[in-house]
Design a protein that fits this description.
Distance between the termini: 39 Å
Order of helices and strands: HHHH
Strand content: under 5%
Largest sheet: none
Low-confidence stretches: none
Helix content: 40-55%
Number of strands: 0
Mean pLDDT: 82
Structural class: mainly alpha
Radius of gyration: 18 Å
Number of helices: 4
């Protein structure tokens, strides 16, 4: 920790303190934000994008994945559903998001 700059220490402290339950955490809002960043102008047509991704990429690589399960996973982010349970507590460790940088090519 002594080798870190103060800015890096502050960023690390913010990340670790966000795992506490007293911080407000809205998983639905964060999932929508990620999908908007990923799909950009195609966000309004995301159901069609999920279908296209499944048919062009997933179907050949993993034919045992059902299209309905794949689309539900892409829509809500929940990969596995357990019988008679509700998933009310999100996993905060998956909540990080770092925007990428565009590499300018000449």
């Amino acid at each position: 920790m002594d080798c870190l700059k103060f800015r890096e220490r502050d960023n690390l402290e913010d990340t670790l303190s966000s795992y506490y339950s007293n911080h407000h955490f809205d998983i639905e809002k964060q999932l929508e934000q990620r999908q908007r960043a990923h799909l950009k102008e195609r966000y309004d047509h995301r159901a069609n994008m999920y279908d296209w991704d499944y048919n062009m990429h997933i179907k050949e690589l993993a034919p045992y994945i059902h299209p309905k399960e794949y689309k539900t996973w892409r829509k809500c982010g929940l990969a596995f559903e357990w019988r008679l349970t509700e998933n009310k507590i999100p996993n905060r460790t998956f909540s990080s998001y770092i925007p990428g940088y565009n590499k300018k090519v000449k």
